[in-house]
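Subject: for your reference before the review

Hello V.,

The reviewers asked for a structural picture of the protein, and I figured it would be easier to keep everything in one thread rather than splitting it across files. Below is the amino acid sequence we used in the manuscript, unchanged from the supplementary table.
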Amino acid sequence: METAAYYYMPLFKPGAIVQLGSSRETVSHVVVRRGGLMVHLVGRDVPVHPDTLWLEPSAFQLSRVPE
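And here is what came back from the structure prediction:
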């Protein structure tokens, strides 16, 4: 079988631990709107742009895999 291609990107989902500057925060929920993606953090009133957060990337396989 040939090697599969993967795409790596952060997966922001509720409960994920992210790093904002030097502090660790927990994702409350994510909102997708026409203007883009905004991440809401637990205990914060203002949403955060995902470019300001760091999260270990998840791997997504780009080819179909038999079940």
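For the response letter, the relevant points are probably these. The first strand starts at residue 6 and ends at 9. The chain has a mean pLDDT of 90.

Happy to draft the paragraph if you're swamped.

O.
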